[in-house]
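Thread: quick sanity check before group meeting

JM: Hey all, I'm pulling together slides for Thursday and realized we never actually wrote out the predicted structure for the chain we discussed last week. Dropping the sequence here so it's in one place. If anyone has concerns about the input, flag it before I start.
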Amino acid sequence: MGTPFVLLSGADDQQWQNYQVSKDNNRFTIKNKVAQAQNNSFIFEFNEAGNIAKFVVIEEQGQRSEFTLTQQPVEQKITADYFNFEIPAGVEIDDQR
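JM (edit): ok, ran it. Output follows.
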């Protein structure tokens, strides 16, 4: 429960209740609400194009890791055939819809 990393894996509403999100211009900070874990936080900075330009991870012991994202493609077109999936030979699909 201490690390905001759990939120990146598709957290449910209950998990989000453990965190406070604040915004300052193009920067979002996510901090744990639990007193002993308040040093754990994520900071996301966005550029003018709306892409994540940088994120910072601050861990409970004070370890700070910064990741700057560069050379992001502004627009990348994905063709419809990108989503075609062919079932490999010898594989059985169990569709229980």
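AS: nice. The chain is about 5% helix and 30% strand. The chain has one domain: 4-71.
JM: adding both to the slides.
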